[in-house]
Amino acid sequence: MKAVILFSLLAVAALLLQTTVLPQALAGSASPDLLLIVCVYLALRRHSVGGALGAFGLGYLQDAFSGSVIGLNAFGMSLVYAVIYLTSRRLWVENTISRVVAVFLASLVKTSAILVVVAVFMSVEGLGSTFFSYVLADALLAAALSPAVFAVLSRTQLLTVTEEA
Amino acid sequence: MSFVRRNRVVIVSGTLLLLSLVLLSKYSRVENADPIAGAVLEVMRPLQVAASAAVDAATGIWGGYIALVGVRRENERLQHRIAELEQQLIRTSELRAMERRLDQLLEFGTAFQLRAEAAQIIGRDPLPWSGTVTINKGSGDGVVKDAAVVARSGVVGKTIATSSHSARVQLITDHNSGIDAIIQRSRARGIVKGGVDGRLVMKYLDREDSVIPGDLVVTSGLAGVFPKGIPIGEVVRVWSDSRGLMQEAEVIAVVPLNRVEEVLVLKAAPLPTGMEPG
């Protein structure tokens, strides 16, 4: 229960950073998806129904806040969780470099999935050009920030384990 | 049974993916009708206000204090005093700048005979391809859904969701945005649409209409959201559409949407010219 509360607080903090601090710090040039990094962490470390629900919750929170259609990011996050979860059952994704690569690929998977869903459910022009202009920059930024976010999340998890022990 | 237990995470993930698609198909037709989204907006507002204030304070300190670190080394006592004065000056000049911006906003509102509520932007969209911002005024302040949002130089967007003390504003660059507009010089009419790449394109311009780079694009006042004549942007490029029947023009917004801090939310329909606000 403590872990759920702590991760929820971290998710809200990440959303706050993503919507207030980072847009000003980066002057709107790129926007790292911090919640995606939390989702990848869940997929690597929480192989449980709670982890899957957490990923869905992160996406729903992003949807509720972004003004985009409800379900869009929930779909992207759930897909990222499933893909990373299945991958981590077969491949060793425990060192820093493999995690950075996982976040980079997860960002590409999420954005590609969202673009496909947007193309199917909504009529939006210019998706192709957006993919290359935004997606790669955001994926690189998310990957660059992932070691720091993972360190915070690991510390949080350690904290809950220590307290629960 | 053991198969289900062994693969329960995959099964739950699959179910959640399906649930997401169901939500998508429901809410892609009814924009922002989710009540939970409104609650999230309301809960996050005070946190966003605090975070925004912290960022503003940090930016001020960086600009006015950190830049003087080298000088401070020369004379610590005097520099300490200077730093204190600098802090006061920053606060004062920040207040003056805000006052000036608000005055200009109010002048803008008066010029267009608008009844409006000044608001501050407290949060920006976490997603790059969806252009929305959150402001610190909501239904409790008289802000309603589909209200026009403007800055002193022109159109910013419109409100798409409100809670008691905050509202979400869809910027004109959002891919779902479309504004009925005219070219000020030639009165050619079209629709200014946003795009996922953040560009503005004026569409459905008659191929016989005169549109050239440098033309100012203003609201037509026909769709009922924006009053007539508010600047939207400037034409930078003109081309024929794929079938050659219409013209299209790339438009650069007059409002720097990435940097705008204060906005006016129009609370009611604009008054007819010559009438005093009541």
What would you say this structure looks like, in words?
The complex is a heterodimer of chains A (165) and B (278). In chain A, 83% of the residues lie in helices and 0% in strands. Chain A starts with a helix and ends with a helix. Chain B has a six-stranded antiparallel β-barrel with strand order 1-2-5-4-3-12. In chain B, strands 6-7-8-11-10-9 form a six-stranded antiparallel β-barrel. Chain B is globular, with a radius of gyration of 23 Å. The termini of chain B are far apart.
What is the 3D form of chain B? globular
> How many H/I helices of chain B?
5
What's the structural domain tally of chain B? 2
Cα-atom radius of gyration of chain B: 23 Å
> Which oligomeric form is depicted?
heterodimer
Q: What is the helix content of chain B?
A: 25-40%
Task: List its traits.
heterodimer; A: 165 residues; mainly alpha; B: 278 residues; alpha+beta; Thrombin, subunit H; 2 domains; six-stranded antiparallel barrel; 5 helices; 12 strands; 35% helix
Lay out the secondary structure.
The complex is a heterodimer of chains A (165) and B (278).
Chain A: H1 2-25, H2 34-45, H3 49-66, H4 72-90, H5 96-121, H6 127-164
Chain B: H1 2-6, H2 8-27, H3 35-64, H4 69-74, H5 76-111, E1 116-124, E2 132-135, E3 148-151, E4 154-162, E5 167-171, E6 178-183, E7 189-193, E8 200-206, E9 216-219, E10 231-240, E11 246-253, E12 262-266
Antiparallel strand pairs in B: 1-2, 1-12, 2-5, 3-4, 3-12, 4-5, 6-7, 6-9, 7-8, 8-11, 9-10, 10-11
Summarize the structure.
The complex is a heterodimer of chains A (165) and B (278). By secondary structure, chain A is mainly α.
